[in-house]
Amino acid sequence: LITQPQYPGWAWWLAQGATTLWETWDGAASRNHIMFGDISAWFYKYLAGIRSDPERPGFKHVLIRPYLAEGLDWVRADYESTYGAVRSAWQRRGDTFQLEVTLPPNTTGWIYLPRLRPGTVRVDGATLEEARLQFVTQRTGGIVVQVGSGTWKFQCALALSKV
Predict the structure, then answer these.
(1) How far apart are the C-alpha atoms of 112 and 143, rounded to whole Å?
(2) Nearest 5°: phi and psi at 122?
(3) What is the CA radius of gyration of the chain?
(4) Are β-strands 61-64 and 96-113 bridged in parallel, bridged antiparallel, or unpaired?
(5) pLDDT (tens digit, 0 to 9) for every residue of the chain, 163 residues total?
């Protein structure tokens, strides 16, 4: 819906000259309407994966869970939280996935690494075991790693399954 160039779609609106969200798909009503929500929130929450932990609101604990959408090779987003900037930038080249995350001082985060091939994760150039992260758990098709504030660079090979 976001990227399709045909009607109805957000990209179709852009092709029609839209600079705001329209009240209806065909543009016959208000052309400055928040009814459909803020598209930028979808970009940073889902594509970049920057979310506040619902059990610990306020971005004291951050969840980074990027969505590797088909047709996108990279995403980069910053979110200015009350603790400082939270950054998520990922890139996909073939079966290699790279994710760089920055968490502000006095925060922690869970980093979800999706659809990876077991044994291929590197953290700042070190193996997962060498990195000695506080918490690591397996999830369907990936892992979750707990980190503290700072900048973390992850790299892994993706499983060959579709998005």
Answers:
(1) 6
(2) -120, 140
(3) 18
(4) parallel
(5) 777 788 888 888 888 988 887 888 888 888 877 655 567 788 899 999 999 999 998 999 999 999 998 889 999 999 999 999 999 999 999 999 999 999 999 999 999 998 888 789 999 999 888 888 877 787 777 889 999 999 999 999 998 655 4
b/e map of 38-60 (b: 16 or more CB within 10 Å)? eeeeeebbbbbbbbbeeeeeebb
The SS3 call for residue 19 is coil
The model carries a pTM of 0.79
**Residue 50 in tokens:** 């920057």
CA distances from 104 to 8, 50, 90, 124 (A): 39, 13, 18, 18
